Each structure stands twice: as structure tokens, then as C-alpha cells.
């Protein structure tokens, strides 16, 4: 299969990139074709601005959804964005590898999402009716593909546990896993998270690498996180709220959007 | 009082910036001193990289916490970052104004956090002992100041409600309000969130502006979100998990970190 890895650490010798390379090695050993986009190495432009939309008349306000939709439809997005979109369409799986900075992804990776995820490509796809609210959350242009996060974290695991002070890791990652990956259609695999990344010694690296290799060997077999599909009956349209028949009314928050809850 | 506003929309005529200016006008009318940092206007650099740490020997790995801590301590952070830090120290309140892109802030604002929030400035502050785990989550260099988000959102409010498909807005904002603002000490005010931003007409803008003016008139009187202080007894040190005596054991997730829960 074809796998796209996007990584976002400024140091080529970082733990994030070392683990990325462990993943690549295993995937290639298993016969997959792997493409790496190292956002720092390609000097990725992080900011959405007018330069992204050369067809937008200077007199016209920059409304990002409209401008990106028109540029996507007319093929006038920038070359870096068009290439990234092509690679996402070609790949059967996407892995995002990054250090957790301030409880989210580094700016350069957020900027990759902000720019590559054009209207008409990753959102604003599909028809709206009484029974469908566009192709999103389990449907969309990237449906049928798999995605996974590889995250290195400075802090302790317990600080990110169910009652840990930072908030549970699965909730901190929900805006990415559900909002960025499941939204345009990806099946999202459980994340691979490494804690106390700055303190890892060689033994720790070997153990972690073997865990990661095992995950990579099963990347096309593993069961995805059971996020609820938008148009499969669990949500009222157009309010897009969970139906009482689907999820008991006392359940709220991120967890209610997983079918196992 | 002294108020710092940081805004992050690429169009000077956007709703985000129009609302920012409504806030500025009211705050100035009330006698406050307001400084605006428009990240697009100043061409803010979003990416943390080696250029941020000129004192780091080329042969040395870039470990961001260590490098930023050394640069902060030795006064060798870049001028844009040092100026931003000075302004945060001078201000009594901080307002971040931005459009919600992919359930988080635009990359340029994330890059402002990533770069300005150096080790020793916003984290890595204070002593660790049996009774304290550094000055964070309610303590820290920015303690005693207030902060607030002004967020424009394309989607519908119900989609961001307690059972809305995107997840509740207060949970989507938790990594920012708790993880970015409360962490270095800010008292965090409830966010000002505008939905269906792309569809707002003049009447809607007037109503919204008046709501915002009212919020600005009370910015130093309003009750902050009651996030739990780290070192006030609710958490076990060093595991940093909620004590059963503080919060019943069946409560997990973001909400458990608000004292009202």
C-alpha cells in the first residue's frame, strides 16, 4: 500500500524524526511505498494569506472558505498545496508525526492543515438535504483511507490520564483525530503517544521502537476509533445533535461521539 | 488598565478584525490603554526553528525546551519574541482574537504561542517539591492578569453544543483556555464566540457588537472560569491527578478541572 507521512520537528535528529524513521523502515520492510513530507525540510509556508489565492481580485475581501473553494475548483491553488493534495489522494494511509506543543500540533503542521484542507477538498464536499449534511465525519474525499498520529510529549503519562491535570490525551487529541482526520473521511487509528520524550534513553528507545514497529505491521488491520458517522442516523439534521435514541441524553462531550460509549 | 490584543486574521476587513476594533474602541472609551498586535500585519514568523536560538551551537541538537530556556535566561531570544513577552508582562489583560480553523487557532497564532511561550517565561517556572509542581495552572509569570478569547466560527451554534457533532465549544477551547492561558497564570474569562460568521448581516453585527461592548465594559469585573489551581490541594503530586476528596472518582475529562463541577 501507499503511505504518506507528514512530520513537523525542526531538528532532523529529534526523537520525533527518529521514530518517524523507525516507522518508515518497518513499513518499507513490509512492502509498502512510503512518502515522507518533512515540513521543516521543505520550508512549508504556515500562514493562510492572499498569496495563496492568486486569482482573488485585490479589491475583494479574503473570505477563506470562498477563496479556497474557488481556487480549488479552478486549479489555482499554489503548487505546494496541489502537490500535498495529490499525495493525500494517492495514499492509502496518512501518519502525522509531531511533538505536542501547548497541547496541540506545532504551528507549521497546523499551517499544513489550514492550507491543504481547501474548501471543496476537505470540507464543503457533498450535498445537503434532509438526510445528509455534506460528506463529512466518516465520509468525504479521503474516505476509505486510514490515518494515525505519532506524538511525542514532554510530560508524564499520568498528567494526561483520565483525571490528570492536563486533561486526558484522547480528549486533547479529539480536535485533531475527529475534527481534522475523521472529518474528511479518514478512519482514525488509536494514536501512538510517547511520554517524557526528553528523558528517553537507548533502552527506552528500543522498547518504544518495537511497539511502533508492531503498530506499523498492523496499520491496515487495526480497528479504528469508532467515531460515529454523521449521516448514518445518530444525528438530527440540520442541528447535528446526537439523537436520544442513539445516545442517552445525559451523555455529552467528546466521548459521546464514539460508538462504544 | 493596560490591555494587549493579539489578532490573527489575514483580511484587515474581516469580521474577526472588525469585532477586535469594536472591543478596542470600547476599552479605550473606558480609559484603558490598548495595544494591538495584528500577527498578519507584522508578518509574524510562525515556525519554531534554529533561527530562534542564535546562541545554540550548530553541532548541538535543537531540544526546544532547553534551547528556549537558555535563550530566555541569557536574553538571546529574537527581538520579536522579547517584545511580545514585554508586552504580556506590561498588560493587565490579554485578548486573543481569531477565526476558528479546524477546531483550533490559525497557524500564525499557534506560532505566536509556540515562540513567545519560552521555557522560563511561560513554563519551567518555579520550584518542584512535595507540595508544589512548579508555578503553573493558576500560578506563574502571568498570574494576576486576565485573558479572554474572541472567536469567530463558520458553523452553527448547535453543532458546537453539549451534544453537537463537532464537540462542545468549551471542550474544543479547553486546550487553549486551560492549556495555554491558565497554565502560565492567567485568570480566563468566558470566551466570546460568534457563530455563522460568514453569514452575519449588519443587524447581526450591531447586536453582536453591543454584546461585545458589554463584555469589554466588565472585563475586569467578570468572574473567571473556575479552573482548579494546581498547587492548592486538589491534585496529587507528582502524579498530578485529581484527589478523590476533591472530585468524585467517577468524574473524568476536562470538566473535572473546573471547580464548579
Topology readout:
The structure is a homodimer of 261-residue chains.
Chain A: E1 2-7, H1 15-29, E2 33-38, H2 64-74, H3 79-90, E3 93-99, H4 107-116, E4 146-152, H5 169-172, H6 174-182, E5 187-188, E6 192-194, H7 202-217, E7 235-236, E8 241-242
Parallel strand pairs in A: 1-2, 1-3, 3-4, 4-5, 4-6
Antiparallel strand pairs in A: 7-8
Helix pairs in contact in A: 1-7
What does this structure look like?
Two copies of one chain form a homodimer. With 261 residues, chain A is of the alpha/beta class. The first copy, chain A, has a single domain, classed as Rossmann fold (3-Layer(aba) Sandwich). In chain A, 30% of the residues lie in helices and 13% in strands. Chain A has helices at residues 15-29, 64-74, 79-90, 107-116, 169-172, 174-182, 202-217, and strands spanning 2-7, 33-38, 93-99, 146-152, 187-188, 192-194, 235-236, 241-242. In chain A, the strands form two sheets. In chain A, strands 1, 2, 3, 4, 5 and 6 form a six-stranded parallel sheet that branches. In chain A, strands 7-8 form a two-stranded antiparallel sheet. In chain A, helix 1 links the parallel strand 1 (2-7) and strand 2 (33-38). The longest helix of chain A has 16 residues, at 202-217. The radius of gyration of chain A is 19 Å and the shape is globular. The two termini of chain A are 32 Å apart. The interface between A and B is large, with 68 and 68 residues. Chains A, B: Keywords: Oxidoreductase.
Amino acid at each position: 500500500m501507499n503511505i504518506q507521512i507528514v512530520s513537523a520537528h525542526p531538528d532532523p535528529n529529534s526523537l520525533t524524526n527518529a521514530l518517524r524513521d523507525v516507522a518508515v523502515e518497518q513499513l518499507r520492510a513490509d512492502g509498502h511505498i512510503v512518502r515522507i513530507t518533512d515540513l521543516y525540510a521543505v520550508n512549508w509556508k504556515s500562514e493562510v494569506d492572499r498569496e495563496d489565492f492568486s486569482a482573488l481580485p485585490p479589491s475583494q475581501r479574503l473570505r477563506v472558505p470562498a477563496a479556497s473553494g474557488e481556487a480549488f475548483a479552478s486549479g489555482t491553488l499554489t503548487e505546494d498545496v496541489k502537490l500535498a493534495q495529490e499525495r493525500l489522494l494517492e495514499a492509502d494511509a496518512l501518519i502525522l508525526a509531531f511533538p505536542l506543543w501547548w497541547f496541540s500540533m506545532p504551528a507549521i503542521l497546523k499551517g499544513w492543515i489550514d492550507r491543504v484542507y481547501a474548501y471543496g477538498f476537505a470540507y464543503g464536499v457533498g450535498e445537503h438535504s434532509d438526510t445528509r449534511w455534506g460528506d463529512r465525519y466518516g465520509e468525504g474525499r479521503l474516505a476509505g483511507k486510514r490515518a494515525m498520529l505519532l506524538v511525542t510529549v514532554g510530560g508524564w503519562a499520568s498528567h494526561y490520564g483520565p483525571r490528570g491535570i492536563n486533561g486526558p490525551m484522547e480528549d486533547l487529541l479529539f480536535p485533531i483525530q475527529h475534527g481534522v482526520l475523521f472529518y474528511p473521511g479518514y478512519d482514525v487509528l488509536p494514536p501512538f503517544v510517547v511520554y517524557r520524550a526528553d528523558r528517553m534513553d537507548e533502552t527506552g528507545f528500543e522498547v518504544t521502537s518495537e511497539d511502533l514497529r508492531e503498530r506499523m505491521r498492523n496499520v491496515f488491520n487495526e480497528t479504528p476509533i469508532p467515531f460515529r458517522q454523521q449521516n448514518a442516523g445518530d444525528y438530527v439534521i440540520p442541528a447535528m445533535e446526537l439523537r436520544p435514541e442513539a445516545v442517552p441524553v445525559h451523555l455529552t462531550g467528546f466521548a459521546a461521539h464514539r460508538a462504544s460509549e
